[in-house]
Design goal:
Length: about 575
């Protein structure tokens, strides 16, 4: 998956689109309920999205976090995508631009897809297999390809390939005709359909998108196109006249327009959603602020509230390349020292989060209940931590720098960790980083400090295969867009990742991922903190706000009365 839209997926941002079957697109109504109040969506009107932080990138090859992926759902399509949230199985992979799921060769190394007829960009030009190949090959560009890493990790590209702008054609993706595209993989990967559903699988017209040209503009393949952009303030979407609902069985695209208002304080957003005045009856935001929860007890607020479990882990990554955190005993000491109960309180308490002791959340296949660093009431064990530090040669403790986002919730978590580690003799200095650049900063190893608080969600179908490998495969550490925040590189773990990743029995694979979770935590590159629940307060005029796996799906949201507000 991706980084969460906040370290605990709780800040008031636009939410991700983890779970986005085949449902009829472009109709006039939907049975999807919204805001807990029922109702059906009608075609027309403008949905308002209120958010405090700007999107990372409009370019889907660069962006890859919970805040922007829901937005991508409106303007971009891929060969394969996740089913909509109102589907029977919202975690299923379904065809999008492709006619069907991929056809795989007997050896698992070749995947073939056929494009649907009549699919077009917002320019009116047809989307061809060469456009799909070109869009995907952009992931290999060292400056642009900082988003989802799966395709460039899986496709058997030539050594030293650096994308279409620098290296030209990518021979391991073949396009024998305008409708057929063939991928050659390095090794079998049974979930390749899911890898293609990532934002980096977006097609673009051949030759477009070089340099920074997609920073302030887009070429849309989805139901909406960019009408107006004021960075840090406003994003306005209009209908893409060349999108054909008959060829899109995933997005219903009810609204005529979407208006994203950026830079609104989280508390202000909540106040507006509770008041429900004017166009705010048509508004949605990310999960509500911690301080707002107590105010959601009125009948009206309860009727609007949508509460959803999450698959996203909030954790503190420990940089294993920095002394003394390169010593496993020191990392174990940090795990013992953290007061997870205090961090949970800073995260909004048990109504908003569930304490974690392992890496895989309970909602992710492969999860195992275990606690490798136990303490009474989950308050930490500073005595055990001090003993480990003494054994490691640090009887007087040490000083470390912890990166946190410039968000009240995130800083509160950092302060809770700071106070807990102080009991074990570890001095923690907080390095507060602007929210808009946080993920890019901590994903650049040269700019990383000793530790960082962030979050991770699986990229598809609650699968552990998109949880442990991107976070702990040492061969995938990159100079930019790095997901392995611990810079953890263990040969035995790498080999086990390869072994499990090649298993075709996915149930057996998930069981093996659970055992690997234990092995990794024995080496303590992370401190798992908690798994956030998500509480939304959509406007009373919205329909289609359902979040079976924690994330809303913009593709099925609409207004009950388009003339209202």
């Amino acid at each position: 998956m991706k980084r969460t839209s906040s370290s605990a997926a709780l800040a008031g941002l636009a939410v991700g689109a983890l779970a986005l079957s085949a449902c009829t697109g472009g109709g006039t109504s939907s049975k999807a309920t919204g805001g807990g109040s029922g109702g059906t969506a009608a075609k027309g009107g403008t949905v308002q999205v209120l958010q405090s932080t700007d999107f990372s990138y409009l370019d889907p090859t660069r962006g890859w976090d919970g805040g922007v992926n829901a937005f991508y759902r409106l303007i971009y399509r891929q060969l394969i995508t996740k089913a909509p949230n109102d589907a029977k199985d919202p975690n299923a992979m379904v065809p999008d631009l492709a006619e069907s799921l991929g056809k795989v060769s007997a050896d698992g190394l070749t995947w073939t897809y056929k494009l649907k007829d009549g699919i077009k960009f917002d320019t009116g030009a047809p989307i061809t297999s060469k456009d799909v190949k070109f869009g995907i090959s952009r992931s290999w560009d060292p400056e642009i390809g900082i988003g989802s890493p799966y395709l460039k990790q899986l496709v058997d590209a030539p050594k030293g390939y650096q994308g279409p702008y620098r290296s030209g054609d990518l021979p391991t993706i073949e396009t024998p005709d305008d409708k057929t595209i063939v991928f050659h993989l390095k090794a079998p990967f049974p979930e390749f359909d899911a890898a293609l559903s990532q934002p980096a699988g977006t097609p673009f017209p051949v030759g477009t998108g070089g340099g920074d040209s997609f920073i302030k503009d887009v070429v849309s393949s989805g139901p909406y196109d960019l009408e107006k952009l004021t960075p840090g303030s406003l994003i306005q979407l209009k209908r893409n006249p060349h999108w054909d609902a008959k060829g899109d069985t995933v997005r219903k695209a009810y609204p005529d327009a979407w208006r994203f208002t950026v830079g609104v304080e989280g508390a202000t957003i909540d106040e507006r959603l509770i008041a429900g005045q004017g166009t705010d009856v048509n508004a949605i935001s990310g999960t509500v602020q911690t301080a707002t929860i107590a105010r959601l007890q009125t009948p009206q607020a309860k009727a609007q509230t949508v509460k959803a479990p999450s698959t996203c882990l909030t954790y503190m990554g420990l940089n294993t390349t920095k002394k003394p955190l390169n010593d496993v005993k020191v990392r174990q000491a940090v795990n013992y020292a953290v007061d997870k109960g205090s961090v949970l309180n800073a995260s909004g308490g048990r109504q908003l989060a569930t304490l974690s002791t392992g890496l895989l959340p309970a909602t992710v296949s492969g999860h195992v209940d275990y606690d490798p660093y136990p303490s009474a009431d989950n308050a930490g064990d500073p005595a055990k931590a001090k003993q480990l530090l003494t054994d490691a040669g640090y009887p007087n403790g040490f000083t470390m720098t912890l990166d946190v986002r410039a968000k009240e919730l995130d800083q509160g978590q950092g302060e809770a960790i700071q106070q807990a580690l102080k009991r074990a003799g570890i001095e923690v200095k907080l390095n507060v980083i602007d929210a808009a650049t946080y993920y890019e900063t901590i994903g650049t190893p040269s700019q990383q400090h000793d530790a960082a608080i962030t979050g991770w969600c699986p990229d598809w179908a609650s699968s552990a295969s998109t949880f442990l490998p991107p976070l702990f495969d040492g061969r995938k550490i990159t100079a930019k867009g790095n997901q392995n925040l611990a810079q953890f590189n263990d040969d035995a773990v790498n080999a086990e990742i390869d072994r499990i990743g090649a298993m075709t029995d996915l149930a057996a694979a998930n069981k093996a991922w659970g055992e690997l979770d234990k092995k990794i935590m024995a080496l303590a590159p992370f401190v798992p903190l908690n798994v956030a629940n998500r509480i939304y307060l959509p406007g009373s005029n919205l329909a289609g706000v359902v979040a079976p796996s924690g994330d809303v799906d913009y593709g099925i949201i609409g207004l009950k009365d388009p003339a209202k507000g």
